Amino acid sequence: YNTLRETGLLWDEGPDIGGPVGPYVQSERMGMFKQYAEQLVAEGKAYYCFCTKERLDALHQEQGVGGGYDRHCRDLPQEEVDRLLAQGVPYVIRQKMPLEGSTTFQDAVYGEITVENKELEDQILLKADGYPTYNFANVVDDHLMGITHVIRGSEYLSSTPKYNLLYQAFGWDIPTYIHCPPVMKDAQNKLSKRNGDASYQDLVAKGYLTEAVLNYICLLGWSPRGEYAEQEIFSLPELVKIWSPEGISKSPAIFDRQKLDHFNAVYLRGMAPEAFAKAAEPYIRQTVTDPRFDTAAIAALLQARCEKLTDIPEKVDFFDALPEYPVDYYTNKKSKTNPDVSRAMLEAVIPVLEGLTEWTDEAIHDALVDLAQRLEVKNATLMWPVRIAAAGKLVTPGGAVEICRILGKDETLRRLNAGLAMLGA
Question: Is 0.70 surpassed by the pTM of this model?
Fold first, then answer.
């Protein structure tokens, strides 16, 4: 229920809101199944089976793997059936399956499926305790509730003829079947609940947005057609509009985590800045606990540089405390820096930043760019050591200017002086 609500996949009727064909909880419908099973018995389409557990166990042991019920009670004389019922002998009700020919049904994905009837066991409809089997209750419930389409996993293809023979026995309309291929972790293995792969809640806990999960999962084993064939990003209303079973693949889909990361990044970057800041705040506060640092300002650095929300804590932990880092970080070939160059840059930068009366992105940026021009070096040659000294990391969300502004003037100068000391000034 919670997953469906959170994803916006809402329903028109059900156990929680009621509806015209309730009750919707199967255990509350138990009283009616026996009459339907006995209807089939009266019409000669099912029969009472009085075989004991001991007989069935012995039969299975004798037959070995793949054996089925031998239809021992299928043709008992009516007098014998009446006698056993009168004596209160326990029984189950089994359906009389066709002994010859084949059963064919149409699936929206896999097309025409045919099964030889001789492979079908006389399935139990009503157990000895009076409760229906899953297959029997499903058919009766679906018919009485007006179910027109059954969508389920392809592993249930083989059981579909059993359902259809029940529909036919009652003279009911057979629903449209849509069997979906499984979603695989890789070419050999299905997604595993034990490994935390198969749950929507697990994905949300790992930092994925609901909209991204919904969009990506819809495209697992299904693809849009026509003018939408090349499109990947869809809102829920768009999916509702264009989805049709014709786009379902017969082949299993591979759950590609990198592809999901891509979808999530697209959705994160498409959020309004205020919405992203709100979503990111609890993740930022996992490692940035100092209230001096504005989470909204930090979030602004992250939005274009984040694939999932759980990436955030590690990306921004340097704001709270400057990590230990090696002097090698000051060497960067592209920026043309090494420890000696970096020392010279920091020696020049510190007094310039100390003299700033405004601590804004524009003021810091203009001061650093002007200094680089006066020193006749590229902007990157000056910015690289400033960013390393301020953050202590090779990769950061945002550049030197943004990081310094968020840290504040005093903390920035403290860190730059510490960096200068490391470089031997």
Answer: yes
